Amino acid sequence: MDITMCEKEEQLLCNRPIGVFDSGVGGLTVAREIMRQLPNERIVYFGDTARVPYGNKSRETIIKFSRQIVRFLQTQQVKAIVVACNSASAYALEVLEKEVDIPIIGVVKSGAMSAIQATRNGKIGVIATEATIGSGIYNRYIQAIDSNTVVLGKACPLFVPLVEEGLWEDPVTDEIAKRYLTELIDVGIDTLILGCTHYPLIRSTVGKTMGPDVTLVNPAYETAHELKRMLQDMGLESGHRPGLGTELYRFFVSDAADKFQKFANSILTYGILSAKVINIEEF
Amino acid sequence: MDITMCEKEEQLLCNRPIGVFDSGVGGLTVAREIMRQLPNERIVYFGDTARVPYGNKSRETIIKFSRQIVRFLQTQQVKAIVVACNSASAYALEVLEKEVDIPIIGVVKSGAMSAIQATRNGKIGVIATEATIGSGIYNRYIQAIDSNTVVLGKACPLFVPLVEEGLWEDPVTDEIAKRYLTELIDVGIDTLILGCTHYPLIRSTVGKTMGPDVTLVNPAYETAHELKRMLQDMGLESGHRPGLGTELYRFFVSDAADKFQKFANSILTYGILSAKVINIEEF
User: Fold this and answer.
1) pTM (global) more than 0.95
2) Which CATH class is domain B109-219?
């Protein structure tokens, strides 16, 4: 009797969705990877569009905002949380891990691991927001695993607005990429971490600028992989694709649902039906 | 006896500071104009650096944020409020006017008035954020005064990040300006409103692109002028420069005071001693 109850409970837990959050739309590149690699999992996505971007904000503010979002996701009965924002992973993940009782992973550790596996000459570059670079988090993770590796970080504040303006392949983006990336080329890195969730969308521009000998690492891929491994290890994986009538993916934002939806539909491979606006400051 | 009390009261009221707010640093171009034209007035400035920018956010969110800021400024005993942000002026001013019992002015009406006075061919352009352009507010104000005037609005989302990245005079900014402004040139406008407080900082780029026959209108100038007129009319003008030991200007932000201070010092003609961080969500 007890065992049956327990199995039922566990089954319910397995069927709960994954919570994924980002400062805005960028984290959809991570959600997209999770959808690809874990097609049986339901997702509750939150984009903090009222307070986007996080990349130019302070540690304290990023932690405060992330805490509110985690509290909201917990009301959605999520079984695990993915911090699909590098700035929030950099500053808030370690704090959040201590505060919540469900598994929570960020994008930084996965990105660092992939880069270490990819580098041949031990010189790794990281491009990201000011917040992520300022935190030194990629450096810390990489050095902790292999202290012989050299890590060079470069903040690229214009990349996010350029992506959001749709200039994914454009001479202006080429020019800005050249300016930001020259010093990384000069140092001779052979691996570059795309340390902001918007950057995979200008992957071809970055790749063209860096040249064919530099491996580009997209932490989204490895994050989805790590999530899968973790869910398996903890017995939390959903065993089957939810049936028809079950809402597979739900999207919440703190502002401007229409705009979010439009951008989401340009990134995801299927159409989002709707995104719901919530008042995140209440959480 | 009563008269003396009243005079004293009024004197106190006169000596109170002006509240000025913006989504971030941009409003400092308005504060700078007020400092120039009203050197006797004290200023309390608030920049919402935790939630900047407003220009890509919805009406509801901009009103909510503006209300919180007005409540904060009222705790600072301000005698009047200047909404030094076009997006907030566009969406929140009319709501706020009904809710507060002190005079409150925005930058849009002043900008519209100046443009009408400046145009000769009745074709006025407005460049601003998506929020301000989407609101149609400049169009409404201008048409209400002169319905024969043609108003053409153009959102320029990359201008703010370019200014914040320091590319005030740069080939990239030239190129982006060309793309945004060509349709305004083609229509033959003779007057262009710089409808975002960041834009005066790239005035020379915009001027070069538009050519010498187009008059650029900076609403900051006219806003300070209107504020002066209003304070005089209401008998609220400060009669003398506050004595030594009185803090003339005070700056508050919702995040990252250091960064604000650095930017402020590049705009203002004197050094800011410090900016204080407050939790704006509490108001």
Assistant:
1) no
2) alpha beta
CB-based contacts of B232, cutoff 8 Å, min separation 6: none
Q: Does A60 sit within 8 Å of B49, measured CB to CB? A: no
Q: Which of A171, A175, A256 is nearest residue B57 as measured by Cβ atoms?
A: A256
Residues near A14 by Cβ (< 8 Å), separated by ≥ 6? A79, A235, A236, A237, A238, A239
Contact: A158, B165; criterion CB under 8 Å: yes
Q: In B, which residues are within 8 Å of A176 by CB distance? A: 172
Closest CA to B50 of A50, A160, A173, A251: A50
- Which residue has tokens 């996010």? A160
Take residue B47 and report the two structure tokens written for it.
């920049």
Q: Which residues, listed in sequence order, are joined to residue A21 by a DSSP beta bridge? A: A46, A83
Interface check for B50 against chain A (CB to CB < 8 A): the answer is yes
Bridge partners of B21, per DSSP, are B46, B83
| Rounded distance between C-alpha atoms, residue B57 and residue B152, angstroms | 21
**Range(s) for CATH 3.40.50.1860 in chain B?**
2-106+222-282, 109-219
Task: Answer yes or no: is pLDDT of B7 > 70.
Answer: no
CATH architecture of A109-218: 3-Layer(aba) Sandwich (3.40)
Nearest to A193 by CA among A88, A81, A109: A109
pLDDT, one tens digit per residue, over B166-208 is: 999 999 999 999 999 999 999 999 999 999 999 999 999 999 9
Q: Is B57 on the interface with A (CB under 8 A)?
A: yes
Residues contacting B74, CB < 8 A, separation 6+: B19, B100, B102
The model's pLDDT over A135-166, given as tens digits with 9 standing for 90+, comes to 999 999 999 999 999 999 999 999 999 998 99
**Which residues share a beta bridge with B191?**
B124, B215
Which is it for strands A249-253 and A275-277: parallel, antiparallel or unpaired?
Answer: parallel
Q: Are strands B43-47 and B249-253 parallel, antiparallel or unpaired?
A: parallel
Going by pLDDT thresholds of 50, 70 and 90, the confidence category of residue B8 is low
What whole-number distance in Å separates Cα of residue A88 and Cα of residue A57? 10
Residues of chain A with CATH 3.40.50.1860: 2-106+222-282, 109-218
Contact status of A59 with chain B (Cβ, < 8 Å):
no
The answer to whether the CB atoms of A165 and B172 lie below 8 A apart is no
Token couple for A273: 């039906």
- Which of B48, B49, B52, B56 is the best substitution to test chain A (most A C-beta atoms within 10 A)? B56
What is the rounded distance in angstroms from the CA atom of residue B74 to the CA atom of residue A161? 34
How close, in Å, is residue B41 to chain A by CA atoms? 31
**CATH architecture under which domain B2-106+222-282 falls:** 3-Layer(aba) Sandwich (3.40)
Return the DSSP state at B77: T
Distance CA B157, CA B180 (A): 10
Q: Predicted ipTM?
A: 0.87
State the catalytic residues of B: 85, 196
Q: Do A158 and B162 touch (CB under 8 A)?
A: yes
The answer to whether the CB atoms of A162 and B164 lie below 8 A apart is: no
